[in-house]
Amino acid sequence: MGREAVITRKTKETDIKMTLIMDGSGKAEIDTGIGFFDHMLEGFAKHGFFDLSVSVKGDLKVDGHHTVEDCGIVLGKAIQEAVGEKKGIRRYGYFLLPMDDALVACAVDLCGRPYLNENFAFPTQQIGELDTQLIHEFFYAVSYSAGMNLHIKVLDGTNSHHIAEAMFKAFAKALDMATGFDGRITDVLSTKGML
User: Three-class SS of residue 45?
Assistant: First the structure.
């Protein structure tokens, strides 16, 4: 069996089922009820070469907050479970991604300690049906649930769509690098002997 996880989370606010295959080909089946968020998760899967299936029934009559944040929680748990003991993986990953006017840097450390360092700034409050404030909530939830250091820096950009898309794709590329194997690493990449 490959590196994969199936995670479900059901609360009074959301009902989520997610399947993540780390060593995939970029296939995505996403239905969160928020079109632009679906597009971001599809880009994450495609550019990280992850196979990702996400089905969400959320309280969108309230707003998108619970849906987006809870998806972040579930994705973080899925990453943590799929990567497992982290033996042989690079642990660190980084990427600098341009998308037209936008330029985003992302760095990941799968160290077991959650930390988000970011400087998200969007020219608009909405992208389609997605409140841009929720992008912070998503990445915070991912970093916390996965136990990863996650740094995302928007270095340039004037178009909210491009900035957000560059963020999700840069994260995908950095995570793909961090979860990749290096033949020189026989255990975990830590002087402590564990991550």
Answer: helix
